[in-house]
Amino acid sequence: MSLHTIVLVKQVPDTSNISGEVMRPDGTVNRARLPAIFNPEDQEALELALRLKDKHGGKVTALTMGPPNAANMLRECLYMGADRAILVSDRRFAAADTLATSYALHKAVHRIGKYDLIFGGRQAIDGDTAQVGPQTAEKLGIPQITYTLEVQELDLKKRTIRAKRAIKNGYEILESPLPVLLTVTKDAAEPRPFDVRRLCTYKRAQSRFEIEATVDDSHDLVWMDELLEKAKTSDLLIETWNIEDIDADVEMCGLAGSPTKVHKVENVILSGAEYKAVPATSEGMNDMIAELMRDHIFG
Amino acid sequence: MNSKLKDMVWVFAEQTDGKLADVSLELLHKAQTLAGRMNSQVSAVLLGHQVEKLARTLFAHGADNVYLLDDAELKDFRSMPYANLITTLVEEQRPRVVLFGATHIGRDVAPRVASHTRSGLTADCTELKIETVTIKKVEYKDLLLQIRPAFGGNIIATIISPDVPIQMATIREGVMEMGEPDASRKGTIIPVKVELDPVEIAVKIIEKHQEKSGVNLKGAPIIVAGGYGADTPEKFQLIKDLAKVLRAEVAGSRAAVDAGLISPERQVGQTGTTVRPKLYIAIGISGAIQHRAGMQESQKIIAINSDAEAPIFQVAHYGIHGDLTVVIPKLIAAYKSQLH
């Protein structure tokens, strides 16, 4: 039986580059104004999946929910070695919290069909919540291994996987039946560089949005269908699914399906508290140390 | 204790090998404050094997009740049995608030429980409050304000879950104060029947390896921490030298960990450890809010940075503008000279 691994990936704003200007008044981030990158731990998750494919054969599907431009990241998945890329994208998914996100992702996994493994990064750098992986596993009714440091053994006959998971001050090795969802920590697997031949091929891969953008008013709808069909037959289509495509309940998606709401956002205003400026001289240091000793800070 | 009060605030009592996690005791202390605002009791949810004796400690730290789920299959933490049993209990008892430590265990189990019960869950909160909130003229009582830094630390977000009955949060160890235990406090143990399907216990623990004496940043009276400004091993060595002289623990910001200068268990900040030592020396750390969230409660803070505008100075008691390669040797010399 051939191995099928789904990798959950996310395009994230590069949070090291956020300024107040990119916040909307309602407290959400205007992602369009931020540089977008492949979430680092998701890229490591893809690498782990590709290594299992190198060893055992089979197929790797990259799945993301995000805005249309997340197709850029999906192309990178194809360059690395993913066999199939799926973009779940719909305005009605906007402002989803982790629960609404995992709901949509699990519906998309249902549409994909049979799978043996799901990999994802432990957490995304824009939220650092580490919730979407476990919540997707719960909705699929499958076990999970979070904080995965390494995959030790995949036994396709017994249908089990052994993985090493970080715990406080150490690690544990778990054996789980398939299918199982694993979330991967940083440094689990250095992502491989893009394959040059794959890059040449898949730089022409396009999502439905991108194909639509090439069609102007002078063409009719039949033309669009033909383009989609052509992309599909030449294996250059980034499949693009909306709410109906994954048979999702609108009420469970986006803001409506999110129990958590942003109530208030405050810019961090530094108190401007007074501190004692200590000159960077021996005298300055001496005075400071003497004061700290008087205050019984040492010993 | 009024036994008629409902237990609206719950804390997941995390234990490993029969030892309770500090963060669970810290959360019980906080839960008492939250429960007071709701005129409610606090309950701890304790899973494990032969762990009944831990209930006394939970009472002493603020639990009014302990739901006890004791079974050989629960000896070691595993996602599915733990999550499913907590889920069943939450669905039966319908608490308003459930708190988990943001540990390798809490961050694994809480999302599954929140997913099944369709509860709001916010990760890594740095503050929690109970308030009545009015949104569009509708009054929502007993809302849990889940406060955390977000998006690179440039903002503090307050998250609420107004439309669902159950509100959940994870909180890092050390963020909340533990409070003094009161050994005379009494409570009620509520045994809960444990029934598990073979599917729920299909994941096996093959091997477990835990260092007994890990890094104890939380217990260190003095911490010397380096950041991006100490971006070479040579510069970071100066930080280690200073720590050695002061008999302090060495720590670092996320930047230092990312640069491989220091191990992740020594990271201070929102995604690392929260510390409150007597003295915290921040060297070459700019002071992003995630870092400040992990150290600003320190009794005294010395900031050493070549950038006079660095935000770290805003939480410092002593600020030294200067190159760390110049400042640290002078500081070491000053300390040594005054020891004698």
What does this structure look like?
The complex is a heterodimer of chains A (299) and B (340). In chain A, 30% of the residues lie in helices and 26% in strands. Chain A has eight helices and 14 strands. In chain A, strands 9-8-7-10-6-1-4-5-12-11 form a ten-stranded mixed β-sheet, sandwiched between helices. The longest helix of chain A has 17 residues, at 40-56. Chain B has helices at residues 22-38, 55-60, 79-93, 106-117, 233-246, 254-258, 289-292, 324-339; strands at residues 7-13, 15-16, 19-20, 41-48, 65-70, 97-101, 120-125, 127-135, 138-150, 155-160, 167-171, 188-191, 204-210, 222-226, 249-252, 279-283, 300-305, 318-321. A seven-stranded parallel β-sheet of chain B has the order 7-11-6-1-4-5-12. Chains A and B meet through α3, α4, β7, β8 and β9 of A and α3, α4, β7, β9 and β10 of B. β9 of chain A pairs antiparallel with β13 (204-210) of chain B, so a sheet runs across the interface.
Brief overview:
The complex is a heterodimer of chains A (299) and B (340). Chain A is of the alpha/beta class.
Topology:
The complex is a heterodimer of chains A (299) and B (340).
Chain A: E1 4-8, E2 11-13, E3 36-38, H1 40-56, E4 59-65, H2 71-80, E5 84-88, H3 98-112, E6 117-121, H4 132-140, E7 144-155, E8 160-167, E9 170-177, E10 180-184, H5 196-202, E11 206-207, H6 208-214, H7 221-233, E12 237-241, E13 261-267, E14 276-277, H8 282-294
Parallel strand pairs in A: 1-4, 1-6, 4-5, 5-12, 6-10, 7-10, 11-12
Antiparallel strand pairs in A: 2-3, 7-8, 8-9
Chain B: E1 7-13, E2 15-16, E3 19-20, H1 22-38, E4 41-48, H2 55-60, E5 65-70, H3 79-93, E6 97-101, H4 106-117, E7 120-125, E8 127-135, E9 138-150, E10 155-160, E11 167-171, E12 188-191, E13 204-210, E14 222-226, H5 233-246, E15 249-252, H6 254-258, E16 279-283, H7 289-292, E17 300-305, E18 318-321, H8 324-339
Parallel strand pairs in B: 1-4, 1-6, 4-5, 5-12, 6-11, 7-11, 14-15, 14-16, 16-17, 17-18
Antiparallel strand pairs in B: 2-3, 8-9, 9-10
Helix pairs in contact in B: 3-4, 5-8
